[in-house]
Backbone:
């Protein structure tokens, strides 16, 4: 791929589902890039996606059912993987081996051992790899980072968050099917975990090691986690508590608790456009920070920037950060009693 920032960046999408439409919408409205190809198991659905997001002034996006056609296409600069979690590994590995930049939906893979294999492939083939933690690029989070660095809430005392939604039970669907790495944690709890680590990094300058971990689980009939209540204990009274679920509803907010006040992301914290600073004494402050496009623009721009510069990871979502979150999720699933076939195929190091 050329290092020139003036050349149009050609994207391919693997998995033309709902979240991929949001990605393609951002690509369509960003300068310097275009949708070049889409690959899906259903030819008609892939063609519909390609037609929907082809710009009228450019060549139509190509529709494929064979991912090898994407990997072998020299025009493809970057691959966005939006399939169920259990299918990420094979697609990401193939793209990295083909030298393509990869932006992969979260959770990157079902366990840390698989993640390490992909990071090794990224390094071996000098191909960019980033988990699509788009939350970290949002303007609202930039404001929260400033408040934390300035000590506006004093010493950090704890965090509380929820991400819950009631999904219709379908044992064969991606959310409840263990063969697809279903369950609340990998689907939505990853947001609670990555937000926790982000807050710690900006408040303390680092993520302290876990001193203790408490997990209370409700399992679905398929054996995946339908609901988890988790307490991450970092010692000295500092905790992060969260609930994630696919069988219930919650406010889906996040509160960052401090000695002198609190920061609140009042609803759908992972895609916040509004943040509140609530001092123990003084006047509350509310800031509105809307998306430039739809929230995905930051991670897309970062992927293109890094790929064009020949970098293999982003400082915003580095490989080590993705592996750390996967490590936490491995520990939580173990305590919850949730195991996948992937855990046998890719066991943790002894």
Residues:
């Amino acid at each position: 791929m050329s290092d020139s920032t003036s050349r149009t960046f050609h994207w391919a999408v693997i998995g033309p589902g709902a979240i991929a439409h949001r990605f393609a919408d951002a690509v369509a409205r960003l300068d310097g890039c275009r949708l070049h190809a889409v690959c899906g198991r259903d030819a008609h659905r892939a063609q519909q996606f390609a037609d929907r997001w082809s710009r009228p002034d450019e060549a139509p996006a190509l529709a494929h059912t064979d991912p090898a056609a994407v990997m072998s296409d020299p025009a493809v600069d970057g691959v966005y993987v939006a399939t169920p979690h259990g299918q990420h590994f094979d697609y990401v590995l193939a793209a990295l081996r083909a030298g393509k930049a990869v932006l992969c939906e979260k959770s990157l893979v079902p366990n840390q051992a698989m993640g390490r294999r992909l990071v090794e492939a990224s390094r071996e083939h000098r191909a960019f790899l980033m988990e699509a933690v788009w939350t970290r690029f949002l303007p609202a989070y930039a404001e929260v980072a400033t408040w934390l660095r300035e000590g506006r809430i004093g010493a950090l005392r704890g965090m509380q968050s929820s991400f819950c939604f009631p999904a219709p039970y379908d044992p064969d669907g991606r959310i409840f099917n263990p063969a697809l790495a279903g369950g609340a944690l990998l689907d939505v709890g990853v947001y609670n975990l990555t937000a926790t680590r982000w807050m710690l990094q900006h408040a303390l300058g680092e993520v302290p090691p876990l001193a203790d971990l408490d997990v209370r689980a409700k399992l679905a009939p398929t054996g995946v986690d339908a609901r988890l209540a988790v307490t991450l204990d970092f010692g000295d009274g500092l905790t992060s508590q969260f609930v994630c679920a696919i069988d219930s509803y919650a406010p889906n907010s996040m509160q960052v608790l401090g000695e002198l006040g609190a920061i609140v992301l009042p609803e759908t914290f992972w895609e916040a456009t509004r943040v509140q600073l609530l001092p123990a004494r003084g006047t509350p402050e509310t800031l509105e920070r809307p998306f430039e496009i739809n929230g995905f623009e930051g991670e897309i721009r970062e992927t293109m920037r890094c790929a064009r510069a020949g970098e293999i990871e982003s400082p915003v979502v580095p490989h080590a950060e993705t592996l750390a979150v996967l490590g936490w999720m491995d520990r939580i699933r173990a305590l919850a009693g949730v195991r996948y076939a992937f855990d046998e195929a890719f066991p943790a190091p002894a």
